[in-house]
Design goal:
Distance between the termini: 14 Å
Strand order of the largest sheet: 1-2-3-4-5-6-7
Number of helices: 14
Strand content: 5-15%
Oligomer: single chain
Shape: globular
Mean pLDDT: 95
Length: 344
């Protein structure tokens, strides 16, 4: 099988020569150690050396406040001197002091058409070496951005004390991403194989907010984002860190093809449980623990874990670290062991 055939067979839960595997998106600070270990000088050579099956391409976005689509909204609340805090979900957000839904119009919402160049979208996708399954990384994290719009704690309270405002804000964010993605999908039509979207709904022990609130405020937007990608014939990989077992049926109902990243040490996210409960209805991506095993484990331990995952998921699991970002503390020899065991 070639990379594209293997990707489709794995995500469609059909027989494979071996499951598809994906490095993820290494943090820039982790690249020098990876390049040294594998004796390469760039990402294309690294992926070729590993035998990676997927090649991620982020939607290019350039505005006065951000060069990343996942940070398109400058929601951080201004200090008295006019500056703002570093962007985090917990920092006070623009809408922290508002409750009336009409306040949604007070924010200077960015126009994606101004900051996304279709020609650049085509260039970054055309730059992918031939033969890979191309994964468009659009994120479209409407829930996380809504939390940043208020500040996490305030956002969760506003769901109850100002639900109309919270809904107005998250709907405006969703609309931005639908417009942004439409530009990307049209510009690259026929060149992408899948798309990665997502929000972090889970913590280590459970959901960050009740499933009822997610169904009320969030999942309509998720469904629209999934359906948009499907109209372009794309497989949809949905990212959420944490323990999300209780809402996996919702994601399946929305048409998600694979769930990323199986945070291996989170509650109720054991691969055996996921295979038993959902393995005939959805595929997965991840599973190799990035919190402890890839950082502190040995190559032999990584190899044993990958072989265990392959026994549980002969297909239907794209083998990858349980976080999309390879960080500086990840041992390169464990990355090598993951790919060797995925392909032996």
């Amino acid at each position: 099988m070639n990379h594209i055939e293997r990707f489709y067979a794995t995500i469609e839960r059909r027989p494979v020569d071996h499951p598809a595997s994906w490095l993820g998106i290494p943090d820039a600070k982790a690249l020098p150690m990876l390049y040294r270990h594998f004796g390469v000088t760039d990402m294309k050579s690294l992926k070729s050396c590993l035998g990676d099956d997927l090649y991620p391409v982020e939607l290019p976005y350039h505005s006065p406040t951000s060069n990343a689509i996942y940070a398109a909204f400058d929601f951080a609340k201004r200090r008295t001197d006019g500056s703002n805090e570093e962007r985090t979900l917990t920092a006070p957000g623009f809408f922290e002091d508002y409750t009336d839904p009409s306040a949604v119009d007070l924010f200077d919402w960015p126009e994606p058409e101004r900051y996304i160049d279709p020609d650049e979208c085509r260039r970054v996708v055309d730059d992918v070496p031939e033969g890979y399954a191309v994964l468009g990384v659009v994120w479209s994290a409407h829930f996380q951005d809504a939390c940043a719009a208020f500040g996490m704690e305030d956002a969760l309270m506003k769901m109850f004390i100002a639900p109309e405002l919270f809904q107005a804000v998250i709907d405006r964010i969703t609309d931005f991403y639908l417009r942004a993605n439409e530009i990307f999908y049209r510009a690259t039509q026929g060149k992408l194989h899948a798309v990665l979207i997502g929000n972090d709904f889970g913590s280590q022990q459970g959901l960050m907010v009740g499933p009822e609130e997610l169904r009320r405020f969030v999942f309509d937007g998720t469904r629209r984002l999934v359906e948009q990608a499907k109209r372009y014939g794309l497989k949809v990989i949905h990212h959420s860190c944490g323990s999300i077992h209780d809402i996996i049926p919702d994601l399946i109902d929305m048409g998600v093809d694979a769930i990323h990243p199986i945070q291996a040490l989170a509650a109720k996210m054991e691969p055996e449980r996921l295979r038993h409960d959902f393995g005939d209805r959805v595929s997965f991506c991840g599973g190799v623990d990035a919190q402890h095993l890839m950082v502190c484990g040995t190559p032999d331990e990584v190899t044993a874990k990958v072989h265990e995952l392959r026994r549980i998921f002969p297909t239907g699991l794209i083998l990858s670290p349980s976080h999309e970002a390879i960080l500086m503390d990840t041992r390169p020899e464990n990355v090598e062991a993951l790919f060797r065991a995925a392909q032996d």
